[in-house]
Amino acid sequence: MSSDDYVTHADLGGQLGHGSIKLESGFEPWHAAWEPRVFALQLSMGASGVWNLDMTRSARETLPDYDQRSYYEIWFGALLKQLEERGLVSADELAAGRSLRPPIPVPRIVRARDVPTLQAHGAPTERSATKAPRFAVGQRVRTISGPTPHHTRLPEYGQGKPAVIERLHGMHVFADANASGHGEQPQWLYTVVFRGTDLWPDAERGLTVSVDAWEPYLEAA
To answer: Global pTM?
Structure first.
């Protein structure tokens, strides 16, 4: 996908026309027998070293029928997309439902005995600080604006808006770069607070919205 074609379908904050959220009574993690299998496959491939979490998020959010899929249908669609893009499976193999060629080696194979350790360790994104933060708590800033030619975690409703730095979180893997295959490029991560009326003119008085934003998303106000 070229940078000019990047379209995310998951940035739904503040949009109208999606209907009400359906609340479920109780908690059922799985609604069909195939869902835990997709969950396991995606986690296994995520730990294989073929791609990273930000690449997976980008693959999910660029599915053209994103808003027509259930949660795990989105996971499954992204998994197939990434497998095909990297040549790990082919369209004819997917149609046949089985391997037609010898498997392609991956950097790491996850076995059942590895799962408890992987789950306990997680995937920390904080990295050692290599520079001083540009902004301080209480400082007024403005988020960047304009179309983004790649994966980003800055929601559209929060672009080009004034905010105040509330907290510094250290330097973390920069999702925009990591999703694009340009390495981790750690950046300072902040919690910034918007006034609701700066985001939506008819917002309730006193409403605030907090967003975690990397330093490249911010400019001095």
So the answer is: 0.87
